[in-house]
Predict the 3D structure of the following.
Amino acid sequence: MSFAEILGQEPAIKLLKNSLERGKVAHAYLFYGIEGIGKEKTARALARALNCLSPLADAPGRKGVEACGGECRSCLKMESGTHPDLIVIKPSGAFIRIEQIRSLQRQLIYKPLEGRYRIIIITNADLLNKESANCLLKTLEEPPDASIIILMATDINELLPTIVSRCQAVPFRPLSPEVISEYLCSYGDNRFPPAQAALLASLSGGSLGRAVRLADSPLMEMRRDVCIQLISLSRQDMQGLLLLAEDLAGRKEELPEIIAMLSTCLRDLLFLRQGLDERHLINKDLREVLFEGARRWTEKEIIHGLELLHSAEQAVTRNYNRQLILENLFLQLAH
Ligand SMILES: [Zn+2]
């Protein structure tokens, strides 16, 4: 993985390359932004660039800031995951536990084994529990020589402010629909026609990871039906309403994603009610259903519907009675 392969994160990459060029790499970085936009890939590219034995320069006469691309011993080991100076810490269960941080601290007593730097990537740093965060703080306060710690987080507000203040924060932005769509058109033997790639891109909320997951998920097949049913839910059809609740309640893992998709439909209805250009619709393939729905739903009902969906999304992720939540939701949304 090199910087050149990372899509749509030019400001972050430029900042890192400048630090490499000037030889002023921070002891600790905090890469933050939604999931699926290249934070871990960038961290790995930085790890490679830092230890590459013959890094490539961006322009003639400048210092090397990009890894050689698998030519040198260090890059080959990074690629195969066998470099002893690249440590990746991921949550063990729901959290990153204090034992993981203590074990890291024992390793940091020693100098890097092979490379110029030891790079520690902590994914999901927002899942450090209180004890492990406080333990890590000690390392950040007295950073060991030749070690670079890269924390990754989706929500910077979940981190201790004292941790944030000891890292150089690097924001990662959501990707544009164009970048995601272009990638999907060439993803996996070019299997996405442009219209489907554009739909996935607009449903993804700017996350390439999410777009790829959706592309491979049976949800895309269901999406159309479920969205049409939501928009045309009728109080006269109690049977249909309860059946829909029962069907969706059985899809525990996918439910938060389904509810997020339903929210995009209501968002589209709101757009149409406000007379905005239909080019900005997310669910372009449901254009006719949406126009029809926009005649039946008032703005107030749509906004209330979005609030109900938001509460339902939180409730189902907390594992409350899913069928009951959905029945209540649909009863309130029906017209
Ligand atoms: Zn190299």
Summary: Residues 52-54, 67-68, 71-72, 74-75 surround zinc ion (CB under 6 Å). The longest helix spans residues 255-273. The first strand starts at residue 28 and ends at 32.
